[in-house]
Structure formats: structure tokens, C-alpha cells
Amino acid sequence: PLEMSAKKPAPFLRQVVSVTKKVRRDPRFDDLSGEYKPEIFMKTYSFLDSIKKQEKEMIQKQLKKCRNTEQKEKLQQLLNRMTQQEQAQKKQQKLSERELSLKRQQRELAKQGKKPFFLKKSEKRKLELAEKYAELKRSGKLESFLNKKRKRNAIKDKRRLPSQKNL
């Protein structure tokens, strides 16, 4: 840049050399990256499930061999986290399949000329709860689940009651 005198005031419209900035783009918010569709994402990256399964087996083997308590605890936490992620993924998959089947039913009804009927959130929740109870009944864990639920509710009720000190 040219050296300018400090005594002479700078012109109002001075010529500035523009520096080209690098345009950074975030693929999460950019249209060039396309639209996120969970179904397509799951299909594209389905190979990761097999890799995760192998890693889980490897961690289980390491856990059996490990003697160090700290290391063993870390491996156990990692294993628990992996199983929880797996369960959450299965739950999400079931939910999306259920919604997809409901959509298909609505499309069939629309093709027949009937007016579509969409379930409320509360009705969806009731269906999910009924499905959960049916699953527990099949696996034979319904009784233990209900006992735990009763205990939890009893504790909640106890907390709501006024304490004996106040009487």
C-alpha cells in the first residue's frame, strides 16, 4: 500500500484493494449438500453397524482378560454406552417403521376416496404403551415391570403426603 501523509486528510472515496475471502460453508446448513433424510442416511451408513458389532465383541473380550480395576471400569462403561446406543437405535427404527406403516394406511384410505385421519400425539403414545406391554408380556417380564412401577408410584405418593413431623 502507498504511504500517505498524515497531514493531508484522506479522500472520501479512497480506493481500497479488496482481499478475496475464503468462503467457508457448513454442510449442515448448505443447500449444495442436499437434504438430510434419516432413511437414506441409515441405508448409506449401514456398514457401520457391523463394525460397531465387531468393536463390541472386541471390548467384551478385553473386559474378560483385563485385571486392572480402573481399566475394567472404563471398558464396562464403554460397553454399557454401546449397548444403550444400540437399543436407542432399535427403538428409533421401530418408531419410524410404525409411522411409515401409518402413512401407508392413510395413503391407501386416500386412494379409496376416504378422508385421511391423523393420530394425535396422545393416541400415538397410547399405542406405543400398548405395544410395550405386549412386548413385555411376550418376554415374560411384565410382572417385574409392573412391580417396579408400583414401587415407584408408592414412593411418589409417600413424598406427596404430609410428613409426620408436621402433625
UniProtKB/TrEMBL annotation:
UniProt KW Nucleus keyword: yes
Keyword Zinc: no
Main location: nucleus
UniProt xrefs under InterPro entries: RRP36
Cellular component, GO annotation: 90S preribosome; nucleolus
An individual GO BP term: maturation of SSU-rRNA from tricistronic rRNA transcript (SSU-rRNA, 5.8S rRNA, LSU-rRNA)
Annotated spans, Disordered: 82-101, 141-167
Subunit architecture: Associates with 90S and pre-40S pre-ribosomal particles.
Family of the protein in this entry: Belongs to the RRP36 family.
Protein name in the entry: rRNA biogenesis protein RRP36
